[in-house]
Amino acid sequence: MGKAHSRRRVMVGAVASAAALALTRTRARAAEPVVHEVRIKAFAFTPKLLNVSVGDTIQWTNEDLAPHTATADEFGWDTGEIPNGVSAKVEVTKGMETKYFCAFHPHMKGTIVIM
Questions:
Q1: Exposure pattern of 26-61 as b/e (b: 16+ CB <10 Å)?
Q2: Do 78 and 28 share a domain, yes or no?
Q3: Average pLDDT for residues 73-88, to the nearest whole number?
Q4: What is this structure's pTM?
Q5: Cβ-based burial of 68 (10 A; exposed 0-12, middle 13-18, buried ≥19)
Q6: Which of 24-33, 59-68, 72-81, 90-99 bottoms out in mean pLDDT, i.e. has the lowest?
Q7: Among the four 43, 65, 70, 88, which has the fewest Cβ within 10 Å?
Q8: 15-24, 52-61, 67-76: least confidently modelled range
Q9: Residue 88: beta bridge partners?
Q10: CB under 8 Å to 101, separation ≥6 — which residues?
Q11: H or E element in which residue 19 lies
């Protein structure tokens, strides 16, 4: 009975270790930066609301014929002009402005939520 009990402890320990390792790997993957895609089409940002984390990247791709920008409301960041068929990126930083618009077409608006 002593050997069976020891073997059970070893098995339980091995399973617990494997579970802890899997959880650690999952957390490490979740912390990796993500690239979030925003399409500019029909004079709108899609999606209009974007949930991101610090360190992620937001990429705007212009599918309209007209040029556009993604510009923070208080001008803290700006993609510059994005011509048709071109993409521009901004890295998400702590405390960055979260409301933005197109400088050429101010009715176009978007919001970033930093989680």
A1: eeeeeeeeeebebbbeeebbeeeebebeeebebebb
A2: no
A3: 98
A4: 0.73
A5: buried
A6: 24-33
A7: 65
A8: 15-24
A9: 60
A10: 70, 71, 73, 107, 108, 109, 110
A11: helix 2-30
Which 8-state DSSP code applies to residue 14? Answer: H
Which is more confident, 2 or 26? Answer: 2
Same domain, 2 and 40: no
Inform me whether the pLDDT recorded for 17 exceeds 70: no
Q: Cα(first)–Cα(last) distance of the chain, in Å? A: 52
pLDDT at 26: 40
> What tokens does 58 get?
């937001």
| 5 CB-near residues (< 8 Å, 6+ apart) | none
The range of the structural domain enclosing residue 82 comes to 35-114
- Say yes or no: 41 and 70 in one domain: yes
